[in-house]
Write a structure and sequence with these properties.
By secondary structure, the chain is mostly helical. It has 2 domains: 2-76; 101-260, Orthogonal Bundle (hpI Integrase, Chain A), CATH 1.10.443.10. It has helices at residues 2-12, 19-33, 43-53, 57-76, 101-111, 120-130, 134-138, 176-184, 204-213, 223-234, 239-246, 250-257, 266-272, and strands at residues 145-146, 151-153, 168-170, 194-195, 198-199.
């Protein structure tokens, strides 16, 4: 299994949207699966892996999902005679945590430390005002940002689109001045969010420190996406339009965030109290 995972990483890492996340998962998988073969991948061994990791179901699902992808890749390329099904833990319910505007202000203030004052606040603002995932923001380069037209293209050039769509988004008015200032201090082809011009592979630690300093619990970089979706729903934006803005399916938006919309089941609530035409019922 070690060779299988290593070969998969070499072949696929340059082509996926989030290579750092994939390589991190493989580094977590290898110690457990070293010395085992594809035939050893059973529901029992997958459960043992989950127990040894002692992490959330979501984390284990992502890691075992990479194992499944590696096995599928090996089978498609003739390195395995048959595909093997990886048993995944149950998916966790969607997180409800989102930030109020006051909490965002606190997080921004807490993020302005001497070391992170240039990149972390910009990351937070991009997350809040575009609703894009961490990987999409950290891989964004200035050629993808058209300040004159007011558009950002989050699709990574040369990388095939995945189900985690990135799409294009119009730059909100509150975000534009921050991007203009950031553009003045960066190279034309560099990363929008950067540390002294260098790519930032993972922002989780710095973000977590800022959240703790701001007194915010249960907040991760992905909370920015939850916040953007929730704010759009609370503002009454039509679901189809919000879904397009966020590069999210309408199904996901309805299932996770629609209850924040002011019109959520309003028609049904109004109708259920109305007496049917011609009815003499007292209720």
């Amino acid at each position: 299994m070690t060779d299988l995972l290593t070969n998969y990483a070499r072949a696929r890492a340059p082509k996926v949207a989030a290579p750092e996340a994939m390589l991190n998962a493989i580094n977590r998988l290898i110690p457990f699966w070293t010395g085992k073969m594809a035939a050893d991948v059973t529901p029992e061994t997958c459960n043992i892996y989950a127990d040894t990791r002692q992490r959330s179901n979501g984390t284990v699902r992502r890691e075992l999902g990479v194992l499944q992808a590696a096995i599928n890749w090996a089978h498609r390329n003739g390195k395995l005679s048959r595909a093997v099904i990886v048993a995944l833990p149950a998916s966790a319910p969607p997180r409800e945590r989102w930030l109020t505007r006051d909490e965002v202000a606190r997080l921004l203030r807490a993020s302005r430390t001497p070391k992170a004052r240039l990149y972390l606040p910009l990351f937070i603002l991009l997350g809040i005002y575009t609703g894009r995932r961490k990987e999409g923001i950290l891989s964004l380069r200035w050629p993808q940002v058209d300040l004159a037209a007011g558009l950002i293209d989050f699709e990574k050039p040369g990388v095939k689109s995945t189900k985690k769509r990135r799409g294009k988004v119009r730059i909100p008015a509150r975000l534009l001045p921050h991007l203009i200032r950031a553009r003045r201090r960066c190279s034309e082809i560099g990363y929008v969010v950067n540390l002294e011009g260098k790519h930032i592979g993972n922002i989780k630690k710095g973000f977590g420190t800022a959240a703790k300093r701001a007194g915010l619990r249960g907040v991760t970089p992905h909370t920015m996406r939850h916040t953007a979706a929730t704010w759009l729903m609370k503002a009454g934006v039509p679901i189809w339009e919000a879904a397009q803005f966020l590069a999210m399916t309408e199904q996901t938006l309805r299932a996770t965030y629609a209850h924040h919309h002011p019109d959520f089941t309003k028609g049904a609530a109004d109708a259920i109290g109305k007496r049917p035409v011609g009815s003499r019922m007292g209720a």
